[in-house]
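Quick start: what a row looks like.
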Amino acid sequence: MARVTRRGAAAAIALLSAALVLPACGTSGTSASPAKSTTAASAGTRPERIVPVPKSVLAATEPQPNGTMWALAGSPVSRKLFEFGLPGGQVVGSIPVSNAAQAVAQSLTGTIGLVLGAKNSGALELLDGATAKVIRTVRFTESARDVAIGSDGTTFYVLTGTAADSSVAVVDSENGQVRGTIPVPPDVVSLVPGVQQTTLYVLQRNGRVSEISIAGGKIMASFVVGDSGQSLAISPDGSTLYALKDTAATANVAVVDVATETVRRALPAPSHCLEVLTSASGSQLYEVVGTADYGNIQVFAV
């Protein structure tokens, strides 16, 4: 992997912050265990700020204590990881990565997990957040599509397989060992572990969220938050899930009470929203927005 290039990279990157915030729309359920909505959508809510990031952004990491984030961006033929600072979005470094890079996560201790997904194989590259050097690579016999980090700062959860047959690999980043696999429902698009790391929450494309026991793989609860599931995040205290739903016409984020499986409210989301992330304090929600023409992160108070 190439060496990190520092502040000179900023001039070469088009950073645009123009993305329209759409009003939130109500959540819709299905006939099987829908989550109940207790309040209306927060149509008047606006982001606290909009942070420019590289165009064609695909995914981003959780904000670090030093105020930096990493963003994966690029085309099918050329992809990079960009390090940038909050709140202004100034790029402070970049590294080229595999064109097969699909998703990225970073622990609060600094380790970056970059997921690679080819047709019949996948990998988790573990990088040192300070040097951006690859520490080790964990390989899978199936494609990898998403990744989340546990609260312990060392365990990565990697979604592997196809839309029809998926599982989650539990990876110890300290030694690169796969400690186990968890079967998940078909068409899972996003995942987050519970704060105690005894349960795993997964979001399907149809908007269904399932709570799965990490030890036994049993589905403990299942409910619907709306159509067209895209991304899932959890508050640091484990009490709230944020489920991004995105269609061609509308997008919003369902704010779900974990204890009651109830949608408390809906936050607006802009067009082309790809991912939601929470701050370490739990007071802010980051909505990652990207197209071939622009990229930004919209920050909402929650």
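That is the whole record. The two ends are 38 Å apart (CA to CA). Residues 7-301 form a domain with the Methylamine Dehydrogenase; Chain H fold (CATH 2.130.10.10).
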